[in-house]
Amino acid sequence: NELQGAIDGGKVGIGKPVDLNHPLIARFAAIVADLDPGRRFLPSSSSGPRFSAEAADFGKGLHWDVHGPWKLPGSMDEWRAYWREIDSLFNSEVGAPGASPAEVIRATRGDLPELPGTVDNPLWRRTLWWIEWPEFVQELGREPASLDEFVAWSQSRQAEALHIVSAALKSKFPRCGGVIFWMGHDSFPCTTNTSLLDFYGKPKPAALAVGEVFKHSINA
Hints:
Blueprint: E1 4-8, E2 11-17, H1 23-35, E3 65-67, H2 76-85, E4 90-94, E5 98-99, H3 102-108, H4 122-125, H5 133-140, H6 147-171, E6 179-181, E7 192-193, H7 205-214
Parallel strand pairs: 3-4, 4-6
Antiparallel strand pairs: 1-2, 5-7
Helix pairs in contact: 2-6, 6-7
């Protein structure tokens, strides 16, 4: 997964997934062909020719199976525009962060403070990639009044973001063949993550938003 560094003309291409020109991957492919000849072998996911899709290169035929993004790069309008214009054929890893329910955070925080939800708090720093406390402050012009307020905002933001992804890519079928969300469920209790289900298996609002898009057939 996410193996980058395709070898082209003896040079390693950063930002490009590995392919069968890489000697180790070629050896893996040969082993699979020998032991399980009916199985399709993919060198990596994403499988390229680009690791991720860049808006500046939409329409150039460079985005086949891509990964990301996992976080809004700017406003929700920018996110919506990105997915409206993307030309990928398959999106094998996409996500957006959303906080765990307040009760999960409180039940598992130990002696650490539940707030603030920033990198300065060790409770939140454990999954620091997904912290969006600054985004709340920027959007509302103030600090969250409580954990419950921040969780409600974060989960609503995740739900809207993934609903946009689902609806946009579904509308492109069959040119776009599908999407896989990272990730399904939390395997450990955490403050925030890109999961659709929390640590106890309860759907976040994002799971319901994605389900709303895909509960009907493609032709519905």
